[in-house]
Amino acid sequence: MSASPLIWGPSGGKWLPANGTNGQALTTDGSGNISLNNYISTGKAPTVQTFTSGSGTYTTPTSPAPIFIRVRMVGGGGGGSGSGTASIGAGGNGAATTFGASLLSAGAGAAGVVGGQGGSGGSASLGAGPIGTALVGGSGQGCSYQSTNPTNLMGGSGGSSAFGGGGGGGSNTQASATPVGLAGATNTGGGGGGAGGNNNATYTTGCGGGAGGFVDAVIGSPAATYSYSVGTSGSGGTAGTSGYAGGAGGSGYIEVTEYYASASSVLTAPTQQTFTSGSGTYTRPSSPSPLYIKVTLTGGGGGGQSGEGSGTNFRGGGGGGAGGTSIFYVSSPSATYSYSVGGGGVASTTGGATTFGTATANGGGASTGTQAIAGLGGTASGGTSNITGGDGCPGSEGIATIQGGAGGTGGASFWGGGGGGAAGGSASAGNAANAYGTGGGGGGGGNSPGAGAAGKSGYIIVEEFYQ
Fold first, then answer.
1. pTM (two decimals)
2. Residue 356: what are its φ and ψ, rounded to 5°?
3. Distance CA 125, CA 136 (A)
4. Within 13 Å, how many C-alpha atoms sit on residue 288's CB side?
5. pLDDT in tens, 101-116
6. List of residues 6+ apart from 10 with CB closer than 8 A
7. Structure confidence at residue 447 as a pLDDT band (50, 70, 90)
8. Following DSSP, what letter does each residue of 406-464 receive, concatenated?
9. Those residues with Cβ within 8 angstroms of residue 3's Cβ, 6 or more apart along the chain or in another chain
10. What pLDDT is recorded for position 4?
């Protein structure tokens, strides 16, 4: 006779199966037959799949299958333009990165053009279902131009994504410097740097390429497969007469992290609440209530300064500083917390502070006074990790009214690169900041100097975890 226990019901007795294992339950097929079956996945650490090039099909793991996946990805960066006195090559645009066709899209960074502004950052979007953050990439820095009184000029820097990676602008030809624009870092989506210059008259330096857009999204109950495509980088512009080549952009990237249920309970996919402006009260979900929350808050970015239109230097305006970022976890969170999101500073104005509970992320500083002084990054306090925002870049020096210097790029925040500085020698305004908390770009210097651009507002994201 079996040693298994006997269970008695209205239809008589049934011998139970042998003892099961943790994570199993008794089930019936409706005809009185009883068996042991797994009712949840066994405990397993998260797994990761990465895609660094090409296109294909992502396959969701099975046995066990993840309860949710987190996708972080960036589009390809645009290339920086070349430099020279004539026949200068523009950079190439990057290509978009996609996951699930139109489900998630991180757009391409635009190329740096010849004799103008830096490339714009790529767009980003979430389709129906996923939750998360979609950010426009950082813009590239504009070029500098000279027609008389030869000097040596710098190329514009490439924009940075949330993964960083913008290529530096080419230096001048003095002191064994490198005039060629530097490439954006591989798999960051950073823009390529513009080429530097020499002391030829009527010389134009290269503009930096824009960074690819960025997506950080959670997909609950994922499908069995998703198509994907990793954006390629934009090519660097070719060298013009007596000039140098621009740097290529950084290629795109996809990272998929797969999360599983523990061995003791069923996992609920995390939820999120985001705040992009104003103040109010965060309310913790109930039924169920999260076991803990992760809070990330960033201060507003500082505004860039206008270019110089008189004096002797005709320098481009400095870029604004980025807001600081505070990150922390709260176990058994309270029902409510007060919050306030700092606004982005207008031209030459400091960004506002962002607060959540007792944590503070200060806004980035403004570029004020002498154009050579850029805004400083804001500090942060009250979190487990407190990150100071990036400083803005000072404007570059010009020589005469029509040879103004390029504006400085705004500082980078936790969320990506700042607004690119404007081209010199024109009335071009600095590029507005796109990613949360980043600094605005400085205006171009010259006879009709350009205005400084506003910094981007701060941001709060509260991620709610149930297991």
1. 0.84
2. -150, 115
3. 9
4. 14
5. 899 999 999 999 998 8
6. none
7. confident
8. PPPPPPPBTTB--PPPPPSSS-PPPPPP-STTPPPPPPPPSSSPPPPPPPPP-EEEEEE
9. none
10. 47
